[in-house]
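TA notes, week 10

Several of you asked for a full example with nothing omitted. So below is the full record: structure tokens for the whole chain, then the designed sequence directly under it. When grading your own attempts, check the secondary structure regions first.
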């Protein structure tokens, strides 16, 4: 087993953070006690992972994995809605959020799977639920392909082998266009253009988890954009994933495929088809949600997830 160390301490809740989360919950229609998670880290050889622990230890764990160019806070309202039922843990992937960047720019599926393995081993997770959105969904599936015996359930959110190129290209263009910006107001404007469904009152705080200001005043993304640059490696990764999705019946835990009704990345037809490829596959659609389902409609997504887990666990 690889050496892993626990780092970090709980972050003292600030009034601004609590106010932001309370507003996010209110606008989403989620009624829950407003608390902030612990912000923690684990250190492995050549990698440091940051994660959010929403407490309620002793309940069945759910590990949440975000999509590319996002971070663990994309799950905040969902975790708030579910924390009384489950022990919610949201991880920053390598090269994202507060986690370290890979020294050799290794953002392969195997590298991500190794991170999840180390995380699960360090926290002694067994029979846990693994939820992944987009890139996080691919990483969750890759972990489940090798370790589904350790999972109570797998949930893939707007992620599958048949992704729409036009929608994916729109995301890549948005990330590249906002790689470095002169002002934070410009970032907010670009973000609203990219996803008009988001409430501008929430964007200022949430985008701070994705951007940092350099000493010279410019704002840059926290995620390592080197992961986007090697097209040959990315194509090879896609081919490996497609091959493994073709063997999805090897995943022997209940699996839910979630699709956003307004997604320009993943169609309902492809999502339903993918669900039939698993040995125990299920399908659900979340209305009024685009590709980032957990951010566009966290209340309904949390309901869908809770109902699914109530049936299969």
């Amino acid at each position: 087993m690889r050496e892993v160390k626990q780092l970090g301490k709980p972050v003292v809740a600030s009034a601004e953070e609590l106010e932001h989360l309370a507003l996010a919950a209110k606008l989403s229609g989620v009624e829950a006690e407003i608390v902030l998670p612990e912000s923690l880290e684990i250190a492995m050889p050549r990698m440091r992972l940051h994660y959010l622990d929403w407490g309620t230890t002793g309940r069945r764990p759910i590990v949440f994995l975000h999509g590319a160019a996002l971070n663990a806070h994309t799950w905040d309202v969902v975790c708030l809605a579910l924390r009384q039922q489950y022990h919610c843990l949201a991880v920053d992937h390598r090269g994202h959020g507060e986690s370290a960047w890979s020294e050799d720019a290794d953002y392969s599926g195997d590298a991500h799977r190794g991170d999840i393995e180390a995380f699960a081993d360090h926290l002694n997770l067994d029979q846990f639920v693994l939820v992944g959105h987009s890139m996080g969904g691919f990483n969750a599936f890759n972990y489940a392909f090798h370790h589904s015996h350790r999972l109570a359930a797998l949930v893939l959110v707007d992620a599958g082998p048949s992704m729409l190129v036009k929608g994916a290209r729109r995301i890549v263009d948005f990330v590249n266009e906002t790689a470095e910006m002169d002002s934070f107001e410009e970032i907010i404007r670009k973000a609203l253009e990219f996803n008009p469904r988001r409430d501008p009152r929430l964007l200022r705080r949430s985008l701070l988890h994705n951007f940092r200001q350099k000493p010279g005043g410019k704002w840059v993304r926290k995620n390592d954009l080197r992961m986007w640059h090697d097209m040959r490696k990315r194509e090879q990764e896609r081919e490996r994933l497609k091959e493994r999705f073709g063997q999805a019946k090897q995943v022997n835990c209940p699996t839910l495929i979630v699709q956003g009704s307004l997604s320009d990345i993943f169609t309902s037809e492809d999502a339903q088809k993918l669900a039939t490829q698993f040995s125990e596959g299920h399908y659900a659609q979340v209305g009024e949600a685009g590709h980032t389902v957990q951010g566009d409609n966290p209340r309904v997504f949390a309901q869908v997830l809770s109902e699914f887990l109530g049936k299969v666990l």
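Residues 231-245 form the longest helix (15 residues). Use that as a sanity check on your answer.
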